[in-house]
Amino acid sequence: MSTVEKFIPTKKYNTIAYVLMGVGLIAAIALYISTHGAAGSEEELHKSDARFWASLLQNSVYFLLVVNAAMFFMCATTLAWGGFQIGFSRVTEAVSAAVPVVGTITAVILLSIVFGDNHTIYHWTDTEHVAHDKILNFKKGFLNKGFYTAVTLGTVILWSFLGWKMRQRSRSLDTNLR
């Protein structure tokens, strides 16, 4: 009986992956065109722009939560000394290995929204609006671009480090068992 130590994707799998990436890119372009096509006035353009960024944000956060769920499942079963997940631990490790990539994409989208000139999604990014809003003015200590950037980047970096550390631990168990 022979076991494969390393999975090497075939040319067919790579082609399928590239085709799916192309479909995703075409879908994002189609979303941009469909949301900006009917905009007439400047207010309608801001609303359609916000709809485009909100759709991108929702999708990226969804996939970030999926890969984080795999990573936290791996962490929870490790902390509980669970043995039932050993049979499919490589699957959860492979899914959680996407945390840095999906986290970076999500961070770029979030920071593009925060540092963009359209304040429809996050009203607190407009300093003029914050100055006239009593509640937002009270919360400006943590609802500001600098704090939001630091927390976003810190979270993605810590999640990536946690996933890397858990993968490293799993690999060390493999080498120590031999």
What does this structure look like?
There is one protein chain. The chain has about 180 residues and is an all-alpha fold. It has helices spanning about 10-35, 40-80, 90-95, 100-115, 125-130, 135-140, 145-175. The protein starts with 10 loop residues before the first helix and ends with a helix. The model has no long low-confidence stretch (mean pLDDT about 85). This is Quinol:cytochrome C oxidoreductase. It comes from Niabella ginsengisoli. Keywords: Membrane, Transmembrane, Transmembrane helix.
How is the topology of this model organized?
Blueprint: H1 11-36, H2 42-79, H3 89-96, H4 99-115, H5 127-132, H6 134-138, H7 145-177
Transmembrane segments: 16-35, 61-82, 94-115, 146-164
Keywords: Membrane, Transmembrane, Transmembrane helix
Organism: Niabella ginsengisoli
Question: What are the key terms here?
Answer:
membrane, transmembrane helix, 7 helices, mainly alpha, 178 residues, Quinol:cytochrome C oxidoreductase, transmembrane
| Mean of pLDDT | 84
Strand content: under 5%
Parts with pLDDT < 50 across at least 5 consecutive residues: none
Shape: flat
Count of structural domains = 1
Count of DSSP H/I helices: 7
| Amino-to-carboxy terminus distance | 17 Å
Tell me roughly what share of residues is in helical segments: over 70%
Radius of gyration: 21 Å
Largest sheet: none
According to DSSP, the number of beta strands is 0
Secondary structure category: mainly alpha
Pattern of helices and strands: HHHHHHH
